[in-house]
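Per-record layout

source: Glycomyces niveus
name: AbrB/MazE/SpoVT family DNA-binding domain-containing protein
length: 82
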Amino acid sequence: MTTMGMLMNTKGQVTVPADIRNRHDWHPGDEFEFVEVDGEVVLRPLPVAETRGQRFVRGLSGRGTADMDKTTDELMEMLRGE
């Protein structure tokens, strides 16, 4: 078992040491859960089935429309107005 002392910042954030992140192949954007087991807190990665970003993109899918027949100038005029 590896033990290291880390400080929590004012936002409640704690940095996971690089050697632990590398050993477990953890990357920015990975999601985790905190679980209390026998009075101790355990950090566990969530399954990679679908990340928060993927859920966000899926939620946006089909919401936009494209005006492919307009020129760049026409689109800019449409966005900016007169």
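summary: The chain has a mean pLDDT of 82. The CA atoms of residues 67 and 75 lie 8 Å apart.
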